[in-house]
Amino acid sequence: MALLPPEGKPRPSQPLELPVAGQASARPAPPLPVALFKALRPKQWVKNAVLLAGIVFTLDQSHPPGDWLRVLGAVAIFCMLSSAIYLVNDICDVEQDRLHPKKRFRPLAAGYISLTAAWSLAALLAVAGLSGAAALGGWFVVTAIAYVLLTVSYSFWLKHAVLMDVMALAGCYVVRAVAGAVVIGVEISPWLLVCTTLGALLVGLAKRRAELMTLENAASHRRILQEYTVQMLDQMISPITGATLMAYMLYTFFSKTAERLSWPWLMLTIPFVVYGIFRFFYLMHRHGKGGDPSVELVEDRNLMICALLWAVTCVLVMLLGR
């Protein structure tokens, strides 16, 4: 395996040797349980925190302990379902991942686990997740099924359709937000749907931009990237950014949640959202980030602190502003 220079591209004089199934990569193979756990992409589970929005932004109402247990159960179920889909996606993209400077070290692409093991684990997680969703019942099981259908459609078809790929990624976040609301029976605010949709579109477009900027011959890694250009994505990102900020600011003043509070306390959360988006763009333009926003959220200290302060402020505002 040729060594890679700091910028993550192979030296011209040393052709890149790619791992193949059943063959050891440059990194030592981890134990099978560790490899299987890494294949679940646990860092991506942070996306399922969107399910908490329904209960956090209704903390001005009374919630029995059972609601918290249902929400936490819902988060665990979506972690299982999302990991099952990640495994399916890795199975579908295994050959392309072996050409990718980072994805080639994923357990399946590196040959640490077999296709049979990946399919078996994906099926087990899907059955367990859907069974748990059925146990919670109501509209939640409908949202769980919708999430599975949307993500499977993305893995096999939608990720190959220009613009539909980004819209499908955004739809996954919207379904999560809806699931978090229906599992405890709270009203689904139009503001929740609008803000989630715009924010998710922003993340999806930034992800495609980062892939174009950081990958050499990007279309060989993801075929749909040949339909995009950096300039076109920048043209899309700009209005979506403005719309996202405006929608969130209006939400803090004019939503039913804001009206229930004794004063427009939610406006105190606006600086965190503004800083978070600006910090994300800083990382994207100056450090080539944006290709994996959920991981970068965890790895960037400033973004993580901002997200935690935003969450704490939201909780305090909802509890103290009754």
Notes on the protein architecture:
This protein has 322 residues and is mainly α. The chain folds into two domains: 42-188, Orthogonal Bundle (Tetracycline Repressor, domain 2), CATH 1.10.357.140; 190-322. Helices cover 63% and strands 0% of the residues. It contains 13 helices and no strands. The protein has helices spanning 32-39, 53-56, 65-92, 94-97, 115-136, 138-156, 164-182, 190-214, 230-254, 256-260, 270-287, 293-299, 301-320. α5 runs antiparallel to α6 (138-156), α6 packs antiparallel against α7 and α11 (270-287) runs antiparallel to α13. It is globular and about 55 Å long. The N and C termini lie far apart (61 Å). The relative contact order is 0.10.
In terms of topology, how is this protein built?
Layout: H1 32-39, H2 53-56, H3 65-92, H4 94-97, H5 115-136, H6 138-156, H7 164-182, H8 190-214, H9 230-254, H10 256-260, H11 270-287, H12 293-299, H13 301-320
Helix pairs in contact: 3-5, 3-6, 5-6, 6-7, 7-8, 8-9, 9-11, 11-13, 12-13
